[in-house]
Design brief:
about 110 residues, mainly alpha
Length: about 110
């Protein structure tokens, strides 16, 4: 008997809730739209945060690459210095600067 009374009460409660929802369709619809809009805002905010983090990582990588590029330019300038090239030519290749007697001048017609 207890179970049937509970079933009847549950059935009646469900009918009252459904009838109340039918009466206030606009309010329920607006509530659902509000919840959907809130979830969408949270989703887009999360995507925005992830893109900002990715942008920061990419900017850091760009700065690191720029710093390495500057070091390479300094190294290139140091290796291409005239005095260094001249010392390597003398020591490793045993080259000497020609004297004026050894110089040959070529003139074009």
């Amino acid at each position: 008997m207890n179970i049937t009374i509970k079933n009847v009460v549950d059935t009646q409660l469900a009918r009252y809730i459904l009838s109340d929802l039918r009466k206030h369709k606009l309010t329920v619809g607006l509530l659902l739209l509000n919840v959907i809009a809130a979830v969408a805002v949270v989703h887009w905010a999360q995507l925005n945060r992830q893109m900002v983090i990715q942008q920061d990582v990419l900017l850091q990588q760009r700065d690191d690459i720029d710093l390495r590029w500057r070091h390479l330019l300094l190294e290139q300038r140091a290796l291409a210095e005239h005095s260094r090239v001249e010392n390597i030519a003398r020591e490793r290749l045993e080259m000497e600067r020609p004297t004026s007697d050894q110089e040959v001048v070529v003139t074009l017609p």
